[in-house]
Amino acid sequence: MSMNLLNLLRRRTASAPVARERLQILLAHERGLRSQPDLLGVLREEILAVVSRHVTLDPDKVTVRLDRGKAVSTLEVDIEIPNNFGKQLAVAS
Amino acid sequence: MAKVLVVTSGKGGVGKTTSTAALGAALAQQGQKVVVVDFDVGLRNLDLIMGAERRVVFDLINVAQGVAKLSQALIRDKRLESLWLLPASQTRDKDALTDEGVRDIIADLRTKFDWVICDSPAGIERGATLAMRYADEAVVVTNPEVSSVRDADRIIGMLDSKTVKAEKGEQLRKHVLITRYDTGRANRGEMLNIDDILEILAIPLLGIIPESQDVLKASNVGSPVTLNNAASMPAKAYMDAARRLSGETIAMVVPSEPRRGFMGRLLGRRAA
After folding, report:
1. Cβ contact A30–B192 (<8 Å)
2. What are the pLDDT digits (tens) for B31-82?
3. Beta partners for B37?
């Protein structure tokens, strides 16, 4: 009886199950990345190629970020375009 | 036929060098001819753990560059005549080691020894990839702790892609060696247990080395723990692990929790 009570108390403070779960989630993610080398690098290059066909931009001002959530992941593409963008667009049309 | 074994981990401080020395000595104690090779160029320590730090004249890089012959650089253990050490350089740049240099030395060592045990540096850089490059088998050392298990997983990925054996499409045998294991803490849920680690890493278990003062005592005096105190728990665990490497089937012993009396339990855990 007293042992059971002790175990119950312990289970509440046990941190190893948390460690195990965090590792399992993290490693599932990291193993996935290993098999698809540099997905973000490829995305960044291709997005850059498409956008620069229409606007002049600085390749260093393009960032691609991937955030993995539990249910959905988000792909964030941030492209900084110089202020004379409007003029260029007018010329193009 | 000679076997080349790499002892690796990714993370530093988990017990690669201690395990290299202990497994090397254990195999030699079991009658095998063994060389332990330090790949940690610039930060060599295997010589110190083996108690041969004052006998180093030539090193791995001298041999790789043709400055010294292999026979001049090899140091024979004073206690076990079938155990040898090939030290790393302490002064040279780690880039002094080339793929071809390592390939030739390993090929040469294969003709002279039953076991060539390569002690990998920490990290995933060139030194670590060179240490595993020509291996037939790998021992991945990990502690029951998240960062060490994560790095072990990363290293397993590299063993499956960056070794010559993997590139040829052959199977490189991998084992996990769990060090600094505290059965009491694992049972209380304070530490990852054996099943957790094996399920996550998914490679066979070579041994469980208990957390023990005997390991530090052995390194203090420069003697592999299997030689320094053969009756100690970690020494027995390493001896069993060495037998498993040789292909013997030995039942796995989970280190028992040290017994504590009533007062001990009342006062809680003893200080580590």
Report:
1. no
2. 999 999 999 998 999 999 999 999 999 999 999 999 999 999 999 999 999 9
3. B86, B118
For residue B146, give how far its alpha carbon lies from the nearest alpha carbon of chain A (Å): 6
- Tens-digit pLDDT string for chain A (93 aa): 455 666 666 556 789 999 999 999 999 888 877 766 567 777 888 888 888 888 888 878 888 887 777 788 888 888 888 776 555 555 555
Angle of the B16-29 helix axis to the B233-245 helix axis, nearest 10: 70
Closest Cα partner for B152 from B15, B4, B5, B39? B15
Residues 54-93 of A with CB under 8 A from B: none
* Alpha-carbon torsion angle B226, B230, B236, B238, nearest 10: 0
DSSP assigned state of B141: E
Chain A closest-CA separation from residue B99 CA (Å): 24
Measured between alpha carbons, how far is B106 from A52 in angstroms, rounded to an integer?
Answer: 51
Give B157's contacts in chain A (Cβ within 8 Å).
31, 34
Local structure of A84: helix, strand or coil: coil
Asked if B193 has any chain A CB less than 8 Å from its own CB, the reply is: yes
User: In chain A, whose CA is at the least distance from the CA of B149?
Assistant: A23
pTM comes to 0.80
Pairing label, strands B3-8, B115-119: parallel
- Contact residues for B199 (Cβ-Cβ < 8 A; gap 6+): none
ipTM of predicted complex: 0.80
Rounded Cα–Cα distance for residues B144 and A20 (Å): 10
Q: Which of B3, B242, B238, B7 is nearest to B119 (CA)?
A: B7
CB contacts under 8 A, B 204-233 vs A, are none
Angle separating helix axes B146-159 and B194-201, nearest 10 degrees: 30
